[in-house]
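user: can you give me the structure for this one chain? tokens are fine.
assistant: on it. calling the predictor now.
[tool input]
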Amino acid sequence: MTPGTLVLLHAPKETSAAWGDLPAALRTSGLDVRAPDVPDETGPRYIARASLLVGASGPVPPLVLVAHGAAGPLLPGIALAQRAAHRPIGGYVFVDADLPHPLRHDHAAPENDVPMPPDWPEAPCGYLRTHPDRKASPAHDQAVREAQLRGWPTTEHEPPTPVAQALNALIASL
């Protein structure tokens, strides 16, 4: 798929600097990239703030939402807000990210658990693992396995290929 705008969403309690030079590298390949700095928020507050920042940046649909780390479970909520504002979603990519799951109704649920729209995902999804050569976290191993079981394309970044190239290829396959 060819995105109108690629939206890179950093993990809560981080900044867009966590993406390093990836936004600039993606722009050099001709993509319209936004990497908003979402203030120190989590859960529903992160969704609300990120959604406002994305809308204020004037993105071109269809959007491809790219999440890193703990931003992954928040993508359905952000997508719902974008769709409500008539900005269709063309795809989702999880980069070393946690995956969304239905909301658990117990006191042990993580603070980033938020309700998932019943129609999610309404667009293709993919998973990019950027550190396959390093000792992987069990959570990311599980996320990759789960993405594969869902039939999503999964890619492992293979150095010396730039991460931007691996991400671009994954988005093209959606």
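assistant: here you go. The chain has one domain: 5-173. The mean pLDDT is 86.
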